[in-house]
């Protein structure tokens, strides 16, 4: 077991950031950790990386308790925090050499991680001269420098352009073949592209934890996006039969999730006729992670 979290709770004053969190992650899993802003994602990651302590519960990383053996935990993880802390006046190689000394790793590893993270074109520059995307690469290179068993990545693709996104996603996926990767992100397509499993947290509580494919296993769920010619009040939407959840996309546009064997589009035409409104567009959509995320967190 690479990561084991048991009944972890954390409060900031009267605010409960984490409320008795439980999960286990095996070696070789790439797990996406999702949640709205303020849900507790970064707090849990800081606990797992020994930056802060939980109020209650136990966290084990690579067999080491984060409270009783923090140094061993730090040696066995690579961490890229949400706000990537870098020394902007140092050159890329200089910064990586400094961290290589901290971790006591061979200097030849610097060239390996530069190549691995695509830093070669910018490796001669000061970090302060780099774009945000390349600064993220420096942070990722630092996290990989000591070849850790577990990677904990908080918003690892922030600031990357579409080409860089693809490269870093491929890199994370390849790393995950023989390491454990635990990453948070707001980009649902990123999770669908690289993760095996998804954990969703809301207000400090886990509301979903499953293999990615099993998230879509309910064949009776129908996702219908519909737009009316006038704004429909929520109280009327709630009257729809077999309605599982709903989301007001914008004014007159709704995303509706039904749990039913029969096609619900005829029922929506009847609904519109009853209210004497027109349907401007209606589309039956495949259920995706973004749909599930809204369903679990709204």
UniProtKB/TrEMBL annotation:
All residue ranges annotated as the ABC transporter domain in the record? 3-228
Q: Which spans are transmembrane here?
A: none
- Which InterPro entries does the record cross-reference, listed alphabetically? AAA+_ATPase, ABC_transporter-like_ATP-bd, ABC_transporter_ATP-binding, Motility-assoc_ABC_GldA, P-loop_NTPase
Please name the CDD domains in this protein's record: ABC_DR_subfamily_A
Task: Supply one GO molecular-function term.
Answer: ATP binding
Q: Which UniProt keywords apply?
A: ATP-binding, Nodulation, Nucleotide-binding, Transport
Give one Pfam family, short name only.
ABC_tran
Q: Does the keyword Transport apply?
A: yes
Similarity-based family: Belongs to the ABC transporter superfamily.
Q: Which NCBIfam families does this UniProt record tie to the protein?
A: GldA_ABC_ATP
UniProt protein name: Gliding motility-associated ABC transporter ATP-binding subunit GldA
**Encoded by which gene?**
gldA
